[in-house]
Automatic annotation (TrEMBL):
This is Serine acetyltransferase. Keywords: Acyltransferase, Amino-acid biosynthesis, Cysteine biosynthesis, Repeat, Transferase. InterPro entries: Hexapep, Hexapep_transf_CS, LbH_SAT, Ser_AcTrfase_N_sf, Ser_O-AcTrfase, Serine_acetyltransferase, Trimer_LpxA-like_sf. It comes from Krasilnikoviella flava. GO terms for biological process: cysteine biosynthetic process from serine. Residues 1-27 are annotated as: Disordered. The lineage of its organism: Bacteria, Bacillati, Actinomycetota, Actinomycetes, Micrococcales. Pathway: Amino-acid biosynthesis; L-cysteine biosynthesis; L-cysteine from L-serine: step 1/2. Signal peptide: none annotated. It catalyses: L-serine + acetyl-CoA = O-acetyl-L-serine + CoA.
Length: 226
């Protein structure tokens, strides 16, 4: 995936039931050979990212994050056929039960996504995830409203989302951004920045906030909660 800001407008195309229907992206062309190629890339990404992985065979058999992504590759293709939307949802629920990871069939997932550990990861229907991203357990790409249309975040390429982090709403997370563990992100994060805190603030890598910034963060959190 490239140029996520110029991706097709998901609000412009709706399915038969009124749900948002992403146009089939370039990286998701149908075809068994292309699908096998993408699945192999997912396997290689997990093997490359996890130093605990001893072999690709072990990853293929024992990594629920890989299994969840593989299941989504299938259900996402089914989702673009109105007659297969219900089976796609049911298959995605089976994947959720077996892996602990929930990915809506409508979500657009780029190539070589690695979900580490995976338990509790949630990716909503209108979310877009770029290429070579890494999501850790407990992370959420969620919405802040129940309205139809684009309501989940868009991640650029090579984004890392730490354990327990929540990215809420139709936000833009730029390429190479990093979301800290347990951060709650409610605003866009520019390319290459690090977002930490509750609510999260984007900072340059290596920047350490002063005491005044901590007080400001706490005040903003109270306003957000109240």
């Amino acid at each position: 995936m490239t140029s996520h800001r110029n991706a097709p407008d998901v609000d412009a195309a709706e399915g038969v039931d009124g749900d948002v229907d992403h146009p089939m992206p370039e990286g998701h062309r149908p075809g068994l050979r292309h699908l096998v190629e993408i699945l192999a890339e997912d396997l290689e990404a997990a093997h490359a990212h996890d130093p605990a992985a001893r072999s690709r065979f072990e990853v293929a058999l024992g990594y629920p994050g890989v299994h969840a992504v593989w299941a989504h590759r299938v259900t996402h293709r089914m989702w673009h056929r109105p007659a297969l939307r219900l089976p796609a949802r049911l298959l995605s629920q089976v994947a959720r039960w077996t892996t602990g990871i929930e990915i809506h069939p409508g979500a657009r997932i780029g190539r070589r996504l690695f979900i580490d550990h995976g338990m509790g990861v949630v990716i909503g229907q209108t979310a877009v995830v770029g290429d070579d991203c890494v999501l850790f357990h407990g992370s959420t790409l969620g919405g802040r409203s129940m309205t139809r249309g684009k309501r989940h975040p868009t991640l650029g390429d090579r984004v890392m989302v730490g354990a327990g982090a929540k990215i809420l709403g139709p936000l833009w997370i730029g390429d190479d951004a990093q979301i800290g563990a347990n951060a709650v992100v409610t605003r866009d994060v520019p390319t290459g920045m690090v977002a930490v805190g509750v609510p999260a603030h984007a900072r340059a890598p290596g920047h350490r906030p002063d005491h005044g910034q901590h007080v400001e963060d706490a005040s903003e959190l109270l306003e957000y909660v109240i």
